[in-house]
Write a structure and sequence with these properties.
α1 (11-22) links the parallel β1 and β2 (27-31). The chain is elongated. It is built from seven helices and five strands, in the order βαβαβαβαβααα. With 193 residues, it is α/β, with parallel strands linked by helices. Strands 2-1-3-4-5 form a five-stranded parallel β-sheet, sandwiched between helices.
């Protein structure tokens, strides 16, 4: 497992690195948050990112949250102090573990395990949400195409759906693709699109 520690103090990164090595991890890289470090992180393709921010300013926290959004990896963030706004911003950005005043090497392994589990759970929920959103959009498209067929050809709803379905099968296309084509054509012809 490749682990990247984002830290610019050195001393605090040493605590994290010791905890990781004691837990059996050895592919560890420390990256200071300077220059084009986000692009560097993307090239490194870490499995997890640990952000050691100490006492971050709002600007630093915002910058780190950009990293979280860009990487789509489990991220554990260590800070010394926080408030509700900072915690909310971190959660909204997808940070998997937000640890306040908990930088001790013996805590690193459980926190990594937690961050990975939360990230995977969130990723599964996001995939399910994306699938449901796509299915709903497809259904709306198909319903609109059925409505056009019902009006223009005086069909019942089951007959309109059967026509869309048989056309899709005959053309080896998805029903929603045929429905989108029908809606586009109806719009071009000045129909009910």
């Amino acid at each position: 497992m490749r682990i990247v520690i984002i830290d610019d103090t050195g001393l605090r990164a040493t605590v994290l690195e010791e905890g990781l090595r004691e837990a059996g991890y050895d592919d560890i890289h420390v990256v200071p948050p300077r220059g084009a470090f986000v692009a560097r992180l993307e090239r490194m393709a870490p499995d997890i990112v640990l952000m050691d921010l100490g006492d971050p300013s709002r600007d630093t926290l915002e910058e780190m949250l950009v990293v979280s959004r860009a990487l789509a990896r489990p991220i554990a963030m260590f800070v010394d102090r926080s408030d509700e706004t900072m915690i909310g911003a971190a959660i909204d950005a997808g940070v998997s573990a937000y640890v306040v005043d908990g930088l001790r090497k013996e805590r690193v392994k459980p926190i990594i395990d937690l961050a990975i589990r939360r990230f995977n759970a969130f990723a599964r929920m996001q995939a399910a949400l994306d699938e449901a959103t796509t299915a709903l959009a497809d259904r709306k498209t198909i319903d609109k195409a059925k409505s056009i067929l019902m009006t223009s050809r005086n069909l019942t709803e089951p007959d309109a759906y059967a026509l869309l379905r048989s056309t899709a099968m005959n053309q080896n296309r998805r029903i929603v693709d045929v429905a989108e084509a029908l809606i586009t054509a109806a719009g071009l012809l000045g129909g009910d699109a």
